[in-house]
User: Fold this.
Amino acid sequence: MNTIAIEFRDVVKSFAKKNGGKQVILDHVNFSIPVGKTTVIAGGSGQGKSVLLKLILGLMPVDSGQILVAGEDVTGVRGQLLEQLRTRFGVLFQGAALFDSLSVYENVALPLRERSNKSEHEIREQVMAILTQLELTGHEEKFPAQLSGGMRKRVGLARALQLKPEIMLFDEPTTGLDPVMTQEIYNLFARTQEQVGYTAVIVSHDIPKVFNLADQVIVLNNGKVDVFASPEALQWSREPHIVDFVESTMGKIYQSHLVEQ
Amino acid sequence: MVCEQGEGSMQRNFVQKLGETGLYVHQDLGRMGLYLLLAVKGLFRRPFRFGEFMRQMHFIGSGSVVVIFFTAASTGMVLGLQGYYSLNKFGAEGMLGSAVSLTLIMELGPVLTAIMVAGRAGSAMCAELGIMRISEQIDALECMAVDPFRYLITPKFLAALVSIPLLTALFDVVGIAGGYVAGVHLMGVNPGSYLEGMRSSVTNHDIWLGTVKSFVFALLVVWICTGRGYFVYQIRGAGFGAQSVSRVTTQAVVFSSISVLVFDYLLTAVLL
Assistant:
C-alpha cells in the first residue's frame, strides 16, 4: 500500500507579470504528504499556498515537474482521467463556495446526485446523516446567505465529505471566523478525520491553532519549501526565514500554552 | 534629441500595445471558440439536466414575454405610422401591411428580440456565472468532478436556442398587430389591403430567413453573455471582485448587441 498521498517532484509554477517577465511562485519544489496524516501548509500572503492546492486539483497547469497522487503521475491529466482524479479529493474552499441558489440540503446532496447512482431516498438518508453529524439539522431548507460563516464552513465540509474522499484539502478554512468558532471548526476537522480516515492538507494563516492538528508542516517562502516532520521541529531550525516565521507565529503557541498552564 | 527619444519610445509603446492587443484578441477568440465547442459537447453528456433547462426556458423565454410584447407593439405601431407617412407620399398606403410585415419578419423581429434578450436575460446569465466564478462555485463544481458545461452552460444554450426564436415569432405577430392598429385604426388604411398586402408579399423564404437569423442571434447572445461571465478573470481590464462582474456584464451586452447587428448584415447579404 502506498504511504505517500501526494508528491511534488521538482514542480515549477510561475505567472506572467503585468509589465513583462515572470514571477516564480514555486521554484523546483519537492515534498510529499503522507497518507492519513495532517499536513499544514503555511507561509505569508502571496507565497503560493492556494496555487499549490489548485495544482494538485488540476485547476492550473504546472510549468514543469511532476505531481503524483497515490503514486500515479497526474501532471497534466485531462478529461475523464482528471474527473476520476478529482473524485479522490474533497475540498473546503476559503469562502465555502456553496451554491447560493441551492438550499443547504441541495448543496450537500449535489455531489451524490451528480456522481452516484443512489436513489433519492438513499441520498436523503445520507445527507441527513452527515447534517446530523455536523450539527446542521434544522437548517436544511436555509440558503447559504442565511447562514453564519461557521455554519457555511460546516455545510461546505458536509458537501466535501459526501463522496468519501481519500484526501481533504482545506483552503484557509477559518478565515473570517472568530477564535471560538475557529477552534470549533478545527475540532470538527479532527473528529471527521478520525471517522473518515482521510489525508488532510490544510492551507492556513491561523498558525498557532492549526499547528495543534499538524503531523507535518510545510513552509512556503519565496518559491521554496521547507518541510518539517512536526510543528515542534520547526522551532529548532536555524534558517533565518524560519526563525523569523517561528518568532512571529510559534512564539504565540508557547505563549498561549504558558497562559493555559 | 530628447524629443526624438520621446517619439521613439511612444512608437515602441504603440507597437507594443498593438502587439499585446493582437495577442489578447487571438487568445480570447481561441478561448471563446473552445468554450463554444465544450458547450455543444455538453449536450451529449448524460444525465441531461431537464429541470435546469426548463428553469432557463422560464427565465429566458417566459420572463422576456412582457418586454418583447411592449417592444414589438411599439415598434409595430411606429412602423405603421412611419410607413403610412412615407407610402402616403406615393399613394401606396395599401402596401403598408406588406412593408410592416416584411420589415418585422426579416429584420426587426430577430434583431430587436435578440438585443432585448441580451439586455434582460443575457446580462443576468453573465452576472450569475461571473459571481459563481469569483466565489469559487465553478471551481467547486470542477473539484466535485461535475462538468460545469453540462451542469451550468449547456442548459442555458439550449434554452436560448429554443426560446429566442419563439420570442421572435411572438415579436413578429405582436408587431404586425401593432402596425395594423396604427395603420388601420389610427390612419384609416383599409384593413383588407393591409392583410392582403401582408399575405401576398411574405413568402416562405422570408420566414425562413427570419428564423435562421433568430437562431444565429440566439447562439451569439448566449455564447457571448455566458462566455464573458465564465471567463471573468481572463478578460483584460476587467479587474477583480464585484467590479469585474459588472464590467464583463456591460461588455457582454455591448459585444452581443454589436455581434447581432454585424451578423444581421452578413446573413442578409448572404441569404437574401
User: Anything to note?
Assistant: Chain B has one domain: 47-271. The two ends of chain B are 59 Å apart (CA to CA). The mean pLDDT of chain B is 91. Residues 47-271 of chain B form one domain.
